[in-house]
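User: Can you recover a sequence for this backbone? Please restate the input before giving your answer.

Assistant: Of course. Working from this structure:
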């Protein structure tokens, strides 16, 4: 009986460890986005670098110009922000492998949605 209890505890801890050892999401790379908003649509590009598990930096290039980007990644929830022409632009969404999607706030220019794919 003692061997059975030991085996059960071993299997329990192995399964528990596998839950906590999930793959960390990596968003480093070039992302092609598709944005739809009240102002129309656009296809910006983000080049992202993952400083650590939660801190992101990079660049935005699109119809609004070019800007440095900062952001966070918590689990699969991503937040990117940058300033263009005095407007704080914010992308808030989720990452699923090589794709992401969510909502975008375009400062005083409105709101919309986005989807993105890593190149």
């Amino acid at each position: 009986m003692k061997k059975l209890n030991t085996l059960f505890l071993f299997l329990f801890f192995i399964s528990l460890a596998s839950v906590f050892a999930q793959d960390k999401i990596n968003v480093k790379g070039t992302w092609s986005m598709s944005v739809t908003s009240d102002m129309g649509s656009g296809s910006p590009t983000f080049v992202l670098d993952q400083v650590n598990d939660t801190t992101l930096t990079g660049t935005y290039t699109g119809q609004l110009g070019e800007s440095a980007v900062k952001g966070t990644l918590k689990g699969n929830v991503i937040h990117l922000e940058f300033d263009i022409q005095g407007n704080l632009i914010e992308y808030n969404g989720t990452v699923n492998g090589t794709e992401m999607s969510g909502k975008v706030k375009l400062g005083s220019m409105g709101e919309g949605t986005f989807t993105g794919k890593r190149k």
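That completes the design. The chain has one helix and nine strands.
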